[in-house]
């Protein structure tokens, strides 16, 4: 398929393959690079000019809706008054602003439509839910199950861990420490589960268990809550509502890989990125965060001591386990198209992991006497 | 939704169960709204949760129970605006700290500032409007809807602006075959 610079400029969706191809083309062709760079510089200048003159989203929305019958708080009234002149000046200097305001009003009208539909029907509005992947796949473990599994892991290791010798409690503050080369599962008061990969330390004020400080690395499974969950390292801040992700940090950088849900990774200077599941980004003392890139979750999160599978083909699951445990696993033909979603701790051992997988697949598990050869079949 | 008024009053007074009931009634409305505006995208879940969080934080300050609709609507529209403004631009999609083909230290970068000033002046009002909307965070299909034209017409304006910039600033363009 032949491409031109316009195809780069017109792209609305950027897959990882597309990004890689375009970067390669830009590297190889100086004239293409110059043209695209100049266009980007031009459009960025237009955008910077606009953004300089526009107020916050809240102020813009309040201005757009100022003539509609909505109640404003005192703060909102003050914000609107302060922003009014700026917005009116922006309207004069930027042809796009009127359309943005019209669009905001259209957004508000659409909300009213959704609200009225719900009121008229007497029950919540019909929801065309965001699509779930339609491939034949198996979700082995729901978030609740993961929490339960993590609790089982904690119990299997030591019931004393929750309040035991690894938790240092000073007045009003709790600290967990994992030694180098060890994994420490922790359950926080709000139900969030995490796994410290030592050497690592996690601490929080007892009255704010959803604001934690992390030195080192950990895998988090955050319970959805009323407040955001935030993790602060020496180089970055991570904010989530409820999600699973890994944080690798040292004195110079923080790297975050997102498994489920969504989060925002911010550098100390305020620049931030939003991650999507399956993506990773990094903040260093030199700058960042990087534009998130898609990664192989199973491979990238091995340091957590977990196998993280998300819509992973069974053949890839089997390959991972075979390599990790130095065993052979055969899979019958009728299972080869299956995919799996689930999280296992490496210390569970391959037999237990395969038993869980076989039960979920309604398959039989056979193993040799020396437990080096396994077969999954229906 | 009048049946919700007593529940909202209790929620405003701090009744946790009432708050939960209000949020559950709002959830599908918000989800339906965001799907309607941005399509069936994974971000819908995040936007819905953020909007519910706004309601949760502000419900005790609601002056009138009947204001819940406008309160929820404002929060949802704020979140939508943040979403548009947070969308990646081409510059951000192509940027790579480890491998910066577009980095400012590229030896051919010098002189771009002057070029940009020249090119800005050459933009027609229509083209500038479209580029502003694009840089704000809207997609071409959304821009077409906003300016009441077709996506093809919008892209034609952009192409003309690009060609004008290219002619003005010089430099040869080569059509490439980039295999996907």
Shape of chain B: elongated
Low-confidence segments of chain A: 123-165
Main pleated-sheet profile of chain A: 13 strands, mixed
Distance between the termini of chain A: 43 Å
**Considering DSSP H and I runs of 4 or more, what fraction of the residues of chain A is helical?**
25-40%
Strand content of chain A: 25-35%
The helix count of chain A comes to: 10
Rg of chain B, Å, rounded: 23 Å
Radius of gyration of chain A (Å): 26 Å
Described by strand count, sense and barrel closure, the largest sheet of chain B is: none
User: SSE string of chain A, helix = H, strand = E?
Assistant: EHHHHHHEHEEEEEEEEEEEEEHEHEEHEE
What is the molecular shape of chain A?
globular
- Name the average pLDDT of chain A: 79
What structural class do you assign from the helix and strand content of chain B? Answer: mainly alpha
Low-confidence stretches of chain B: 103-110, 171-180
SSE order of chain B, as H and E? HHHHHHHHHE
The span between the termini of chain B is 51 Å
Summarize the structure.
The complex is a heterodimer of chains A (about 375) and B (about 180). Chain A contains 10 helices and 20 strands.
Topology:
The complex is a heterodimer of chains A (378) and B (180).
Chain A: E1 2-3, H1 5-10, H2 16-28, H3 30-53, H4 57-64, H5 74-93, H6 96-121, E2 138-139, H7 143-157, E3 167-170, E4 173-178, E5 183-187, E6 193-205, E7 211-221, E8 229-232, E9 237-240, E10 244-249, E11 253-260, E12 263-266, E13 272-275, E14 279-284, E15 293-294, H8 297-300, E16 306-313, H9 314-325, E17 328-331, E18 339-345, H10 350-361, E19 364-367, E20 373-377
Parallel strand pairs in A: 2-18, 7-8, 17-20
Antiparallel strand pairs in A: 3-4, 4-6, 5-6, 6-7, 7-10, 8-9, 9-12, 10-11, 11-14, 12-13, 14-15, 16-18, 19-20
Chain B: H1 5-12, H2 16-38, H3 43-58, H4 68-86, H5 90-94, H6 112-122, H7 125-136, H8 140-146, H9 151-169, E1 176-177
Helix pairs in contact in B: 1-2, 2-3, 3-4, 6-9, 7-9, 8-9
């Amino acid at each position: 398929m032949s491409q031109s610079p316009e195809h780069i400029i017109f792209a609305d969706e950027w897959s990882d393959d597309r990004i890689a191809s375009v970067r390669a083309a830009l590297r190889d062709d100086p004239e293409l690079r110059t043209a695209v760079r100049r266009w980007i510089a031009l459009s960025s200048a237009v955008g910077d000019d606009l953004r300089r003159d526009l107020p916050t989203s809240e102020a813009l929305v309040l201005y757009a809706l100022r003539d509609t019958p909505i109640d404003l708080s005192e703060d909102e009234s003050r914000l609107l008054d302060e922003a009014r002149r700026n917005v009116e000046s922006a309207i004069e200097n930027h042809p796009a602003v009127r359309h943005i305001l019209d669009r905001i009003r259209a957004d508000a009208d659409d909300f009213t439509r959704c609200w009225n539909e719900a009121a008229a029907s007497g029950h919540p509005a019909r929801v065309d839910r965001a699509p779930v992947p339609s491939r034949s796949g198996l979700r082995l473990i729901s978030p609740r199950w993961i929490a339960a599994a993590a609790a089982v892991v904690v119990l299997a290791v030591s019931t004393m861990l929750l309040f035991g010798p690894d938790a240092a409690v000073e007045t009003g503050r709790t600290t967990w420490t994992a030694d180098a080369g060890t994994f420490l599962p922790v359950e926080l008061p709000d139900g969030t589960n995490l796994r410290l990969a030592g050497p690592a330390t996690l601490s929080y004020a007892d009255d704010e268990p959803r604001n934690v400080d992390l030195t080192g690395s950990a895998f988090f499974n955050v319970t959805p809550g009323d407040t955001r969950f935030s993790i602060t390292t020496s180089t970055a801040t991570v904010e989530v509502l409820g999600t699973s992700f890994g944080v690798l940090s040292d004195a110079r950088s923080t790297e975050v890989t997102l498994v489920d849900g969504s989060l925002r990774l911010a550098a100390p200077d305020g620049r931030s990125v939003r991650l999507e599941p399956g993506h990773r980004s990094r903040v260093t003392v030199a700058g960042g965060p990087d534009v998130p890139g898609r990664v192989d979750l199973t491979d990238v999160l091995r340091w957590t001591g977990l196998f993280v599978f998300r819509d992973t083909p069974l053949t890839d699951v089997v390959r991972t386990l075979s390599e990790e445990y130095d065993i052979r696993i055969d899979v019958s033909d009728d299972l080869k198209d299956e995919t799996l979603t689930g999280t296992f701790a490496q210390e569970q051992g391959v037999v237990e992991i395969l038993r869980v997988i076989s039960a979920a697949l309604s398959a039989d598990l056979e193993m040799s006497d020396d437990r080096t050869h396994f077969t999954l079949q229906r | 939704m009048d049946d919700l008024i007593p529940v909202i009053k209790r929620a405003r007074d701090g009744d946790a169960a009432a708050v939960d009931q209000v949020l559950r009634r709002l959830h599908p409305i918000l989800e339906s709204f965001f799907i309607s505006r941005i399509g069936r995208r994974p971000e819908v879940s995040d936007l819905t949760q953020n909007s519910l969080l706004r309601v949760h934080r502000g419900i005790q300050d609601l002056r009138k129970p009947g204001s819940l609709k406008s309160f929820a609507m404002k929060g949802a529209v704020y979140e939508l605006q943040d979403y548009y403004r947070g969308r990646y631009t081409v510059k951000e999609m192509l940027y790579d700290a480890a491998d910066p083909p577009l980095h400012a230290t590229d030896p051919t970068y010098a002189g771009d500032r002057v070029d940009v000033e020249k090119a800005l002046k050459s933009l027609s009002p229509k083209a500038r409007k479209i580029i502003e909307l694009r840089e704000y965070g809207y997609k071409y299909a959304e821009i077409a809807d906003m300016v009441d034209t077709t996506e093809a017409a919008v892209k034609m304006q952009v192409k003309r602006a690009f060609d004008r910039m290219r002619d003005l600033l010089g430099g040869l363009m080569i059509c490439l075959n980039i295999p996907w």
